[in-house]
Amino acid sequence: MATLANDLEADARQAPALIRYLGPGDYVTRRYVKQGAEMNTGDYFDYEMVVRDGMPIRDHFSLDEHGFMLGRHESSVANFDDKAEVDAKYLAEVEEAVKDMCGASCVVAQGWMIRTSADLSTRAQEKTENYQHSGGIQPPAGEAHVDYNVITGKRAAERIYAQAYPEGPGYRRYICFSFWRTYSPGPQDWPLAVCDGRSVAEGTEASNTLFVVDEFPEGDALTAPVEGEDQMIAATIFRHDPAHRWWYFANMDAGDVLLFKFQDSDHSVTWRCPHTAFHDTSLPGTRTRHSIEVRCIAFFE
Q1: CA dist list (Å): 296 to 89, 110, 213
Q2: Alpha carbon distance 197, 187 (integer Å)
Q3: 225 within some domain
Q4: 3-class SS of residue 92
């Protein structure tokens, strides 16, 4: 079976890609997010990689082996650009879908975000107060990352479970997930790529502290010391490794859903899945990407 799996993967169509990674060296690594725009501190560089098209072998991929899987889910949401409709319907749908896909005892959805490759420059210039990084519109991810580091995922699971199930029996395992779909016609110009977690070696990562702001700081303020930063919410970013094996699913439609791990408390299986957007030049007639992602945590009793 392993030989068949390797043959399937080796024969997959390859798309050339530039994947952005954190550069070598020591940096204060932070991610600042405001309405319609995001920026990182540190130096990042684009590396030539290949991204394999997993769509012809979509049923081959599994959460505990690769860190991601592609499924099908028909949503009752008619218009994903209608915030009120998404708020009213989608999170409950996602909880049920993720529960079915991974076999969890229960799932709690945390929030959603629209991402698009359309021009958001005008939106990013608008003045905001008390910006909340949920339920809005942001550009596609720009670098190889996982949305949580270990301490952030562990604390999120503890907090969310206590809030949702104050009298619950507890859990032996949790998985922090992203439930991702595109709702624009394919092929998408900036699709999402996911990295086979088995190809990600320990020691190539760094934490990237999240700062949600109304305006980006400037100059020295970008990296000025912040007390307790090592305990704040942070993502994981990665340095380049040519061994990374990247995949995407070309021509996803609105019924296709990509489920991938931010963090699995069980490290005996593939427990995280780096991901990023990339510019797909391998297919003709690509179109502006519009996608919606939901962060959720699955609990196993």
Answers
A1: 15, 5, 23
A2: 25
A3: no
A4: helix
